[in-house]
# Entry
Amino acid sequence: MTDLARFAQDTADKLTAQKNVGVVVAALSGDDVAYAGAGRTGGGGSAPGAETLFEIGSVTKVFTSLLLARLAVAETAHLDEPLADLLPPWSQVPSRDGRHITLEHLATHTSGLPRLPKGMLIRALLRPNTPDPYVDCTAEVLLRGLAETKLGAIPGKRFRYSNLGGGLLGLALAERSGIGYEALVEREIGTPLGLADTLADLDSRREARMAQGHNKRGKAVPPWHMADLVGAGGLRSTAADLVTFVRAQLNPGSGPFGDAVRLSHAVDYVSNPFMRTHLGWMSVGPRGKNYRQFFHNGRTGGFASFIGFTPAKGVAVVALSNTARSLDRTVLGLLGQLEDAREASSTHHPIG
# Structure
């Protein structure tokens, strides 16, 4: 077993020891990748693998923000374009102190919008065990609620994580493109990268590869459906597809797609003394290091996800779980391991 494979397997084993029902972990260093699975996909199932499908939750937001970057590079949308310009004429978008919400504000969580659509917080408090909480978030419901929403800050002035903002960005870009969100992801990201299994709705063939989700206590729960809030957290994907996606972050290449990836990293908003926000991505600077780790996590009622990469070191991690338990600390630890191993290699070759 190579060091890379051992790092991945050790992390997968740690996560199942932390009461994750099943996990798959991918570790990348240079051109090399190792996958490791542990636990089970469902009742009596085998361990998850690279082709097992999971809900990826808010990792969807980095896809949505890359869509924005793709359309910005193509000049069919602009980062500083008001959200209102992309929505139906009857909709009303709140503003504050004369500042309007732009597409960049949505992608960097600086719009001033609340975390959840209008009325959802109250419903969540009254019905905390709702099995599919976003299923009724149609475009009409979202936009009528938006008209009654007050901003918590002037757009562009303060970081405030917002699922509503991520969903509205996906909805707006789909409106501008004249096709649905899932079709837009396929056209702008899936086809260029050759992603086979990153989508919102599964056919019967893919359903057979979908892991069974579990809540924090390990009880099986039904899947989530995000309706028109899909851009905030409605995609399903596999470790194999996410490895391909993160490779494109480490090595964007030339041409419009690479330009869009670079743009998504270049937008840089200081969220707090430790963290920055980019288009979709967050980044932190490890203590005592002069480089940054980019990442995003996700969680739904029955799944958790984490994807991260360090451009300066050429390493990346992907972790998917069919349990709604945070993966962050353990998988960030793996990313640090990969950085250290890469740094220790005097020739800077991939870990063998």
